[in-house]
Specification:
With 273 residues, the protein is of the alpha/beta class. The protein has one domain: Alpha-Beta Complex (Spore Coat Polysaccharide Biosynthesis Protein SpsA, Chain A). The protein is built from ten helices and ten strands. The strands form two sheets. Strands 8-5-7-4-1-2-3-10 form an eight-stranded mixed β-sheet, with helices on both faces. A two-stranded parallel sheet has the order 6-9. Strand 1, helix 1 and strand 2 form a beta-alpha-beta unit. It is globular, with a radius of gyration of 18 Å.
Length: 273
């Protein structure tokens, strides 16, 4: 049984550290990389196929034909890896490797060590975090978002949006059965779904926030100024859908059609979780 790592990609042709990914799959035998191309407009898919060609047994490539957002990309990767049946753990990291493989392995070790945990996620906000580079404006805005997130979740989480998370494969149906409302604030929805599934008391023993040793904000972020300014509204929309229109929201998400995808390297597998 392996650990699957999902890497959502959008217009990463020039940014992807191909050498780092190839070096990782050459050294590690207990991991499977699942790249998800989210309707990129550049030649990202060709770069991903080149990485896969180095070792097709350790790399999968999912091509989403139309850009649908990080939430859809991660969900497609998780459902595919779950359908394979050979993954004990599944997680995701950002394509720019702002969180590196060493830190991800640290999250995984914590999850494997504590059998009660269902998810371990990285944190750039914990006091013990070292080597974290953030600009002042970004840090200030993050504090505002943090207050809104706490209002929604009512959980002692410092950093919901860190792009490094790993979870046991058996909770994938809980996290990813339904589509997400948000294109890129889906992490908050993941915690809401876990809270509903386990209960507000038990969930505290099911999740663990672990300080990262290294995290560097990369330039050329996919999240523009307009998107950033809309975050408070998007968060409140998530709260409204899950707390006020909960039954209706679940019904609506089930009606959303799945994106057209193509999986390279292996026979087509149903993305059912």
């Amino acid at each position: 049984m392996k650990t699957g790592i999902i890497i959502p990609c959008y217009n990463e042709e020039k940014r992807l550290n191909v050498a780092a990914f190839i070096n990782f799959i050459q050294k590690e035998n207990n991991f499977h990389l699942c790249f998800v191309n989210d309707g990129s407009k550049d030649d990202t898919i060709a770069v991903l196929k080149d990485i896969q060609s180095e070792n097709p047994l350790k790399v999968s490539v999912i091509d989403i034909k139309k850009n649908s957002g990080k939430a859809t990309a991660v969900r497609a990767g998780a459902r595919y890896l779950h359908s394979r049946g050979d993954m004990s753990f599944v997680g995701f990291i950002d394509a720019d490797l702002s969180t590196d493989f060493e830190d991800f392995d640290g999250l995984l070790k914590t999850l494997k060590t504590n059998k009660k945990l269902s998810m371990v996620f990285g944190s750039r906000a914990k006091d013990a975090s070292e080597g974290i580079e953030k600009d002042t404006l970004r840090a200030c805005f993050s504090k505002i978002i943090k207050m809104l997130v706490f209002f929604i979740l009512r959980l002692p989480i410092e950093d919901t949006q860190c792009g490094a998370k790993v979870f046991r494969a058996d909770i994938i149906p809980v996290l990813f059965k339904r589509n997400f409302f948000s294109r890129w604030l889906f992490d908050v929805e993941m915690f809401l779904r876990m809270k509903k599934h386990f209960g507000k008391v038990i969930i505290l023993n099911k999740i663990y926030e672990q300080p990262l040793q290294r995290w560097v904000h990369m330039d050329d972020s996919k999240l523009g100024l307009k998107d950033s300014l809309e975050i408070p509204y998007r968060l409140l929309s998530i709260w409204f859908n899950y707390n006020v229109l909960q039954n209706l929201s679940y019904s609506n998400t089930n009606e959303v059609s799945e994106p057209a995808v193509e999986i390279f390297g292996l026979p087509m597998t149903s993305l059912a979780a």
